[in-house]
TrEMBL record:
Source organism superkingdom: Bacteria
Keywords, sorted A to Z: Hydrolase, Manganese, Metal-binding
Protein name per its UniProtKB record: Agmatinase
Residues annotated as binding Mn(2+): H115, D139, H141, D143, D221, D223
Hydrolase among keywords: yes
Zinc keyword on record: no
Native organism: Neiella litorisoli
Amino acid sequence: MEQFDQLAAPGYPVFLGSEFEHPSAEQARFHILPVPYEESVSYGGGTALGPAAILEASWQLETWDGKSTPSEQGIYTHPPVSMEGSAEQVVNNIAKATQAIVEAGKFPIALGGEHTVTYGVIKGLLAAGERDFGVVQIDAHADLREAYEGNPYSHASVMKRVVDEGIPLFQLGIRAFCHEEREIRSDCRVHYLDADELVPNNIQSFELPADFPSKVFFTLDIDGMDPSVFPSTGTPVPGGLSWYQTLNLFESVARQRQIIGFDVMEFAPIKGFHAYEFSAALLTYKMMGIVERNSVE
């Protein structure tokens, strides 16, 4: 794994670097991939600053997450993915980096950046030979437009790119979508539990369809959570998931299927409000803990 055997870029923080020496790539199970990509945001900006802010805030975390110590399995932080070139080139850069992580037998965790990043991660999984997997998405938006403002690589089109690859999709917490997306949901047989059902009924767990793949990549858009928890995102929508509901739904999936990677997207730090940066880092770490505790050896 010589291609990984380096620290993150000079001046760029590593996850939980305050608590232990940065492990070698070979020693670590969890591989953090920072992707500070922001090109097609359609409202508030700042997601390019998200990965570094999460990594910096992680230095304030405890290694004990309340139930276990996921850092004992090793956390390796990669240098940020190159943002040079067109949207297609950046997606390919993300795919190449993800492919290398998966082919090394490691667990990829991407930190964005706008939600377009997820398509690059999915392409990397496919390139690494993963085939029989589905995607579970927490989000305020369906992201199923064929293109947005003429851009097929828009953050508003990322899940359409995913289903175009033939990958089954289950959406959680959606509460903002257009007629086109409703039609695509039906045409592509997208499964969903929207916010208007999840939140008023305080649903903490759910059953994936019996024919949903045995492996899952989980993508979490910060705006899927309520703005009272995370106002630090470019496109907030009221009526979202709470902190514990989000983690419980993630664990519900982890108990049913093998999670092969996850991402945390669309975090846009608010200057002077470090509580949200810490919360995003803690969310990422708690998701690692859930994966660790539900892994089948």
